[in-house]
Amino acid sequence: MILSGEVVIISGVGPGLGAKLATRAAAEGAKVVMAARSSSVMDQTAKEIAAAGGDAVGVPCDVRNPDDVARVVRTALDRYGTVTGLVNSAYSHPGFHDLLDTPDKQLRRSLDIILHGALTMTRAAVPPMRAAGHGSIVNVGTLATRRPQPGEGGYAVAKAALSCTSQYLALELGPDNIRVNQAIMGWLDGPGVRYYLQLTANSRNTTEQAIYDEIAARNPLGRIPPDEACAGAILFLLSPLASEVTGATLDVNGGEFMPS
User: Fold this and answer.
1) Is the pTM higher than 0.90?
2) CATH no., domain 7-188+226-252
């Protein structure tokens, strides 16, 4: 098991990628601390992990609140004694607008959650990583920063800031044997995309399969990458298999975008 002995905090655990990531991390031997504003998905995921023989706990947390973040790390230390992994995936989309038309309040909220929330989580998680002698941080990005798309400007700006943050943290934390990398996700076949397929099919008077096929045709693999499979890329970056990888960006999109 590639994460045996690791204690991993996952922020932004929702019904899609976050829950699948927590489940797979536990199956790979990690002790998992989940953080999210809503407890319902975390509670169900923790039950499923326990039933499979794993160990996980959920902690209600708004990453904008330093006290909430401190409670997440304190829970990890009290329950498992250390923190060696962190995934920053807290989500906030300011709405589908042109960038100049994005309401400033919504844009600032996205920056507060995606950028400042990740920094707050990282500040809290780094001291126990230093004490442990190693750590791995993975920031979750979006394809919208690689390939601009209408209506995604506000979200992409916040994620682009997180991308730059990843490189600077890799530089600054490397001497502490703490690696920092980024996994950039494209389309993720999970609850959110399935809802999108339904709405789009209804609006265009066609089938969900037709919309799926249209999206899937954009990449060489010919499918929308499933949440659970995409979680594997994050597990790799967290694990000792990536011991010499830091400051890197891993594109996880079925080949829809191929960096030169």
Assistant:
1) yes
2) 3.40.50.720
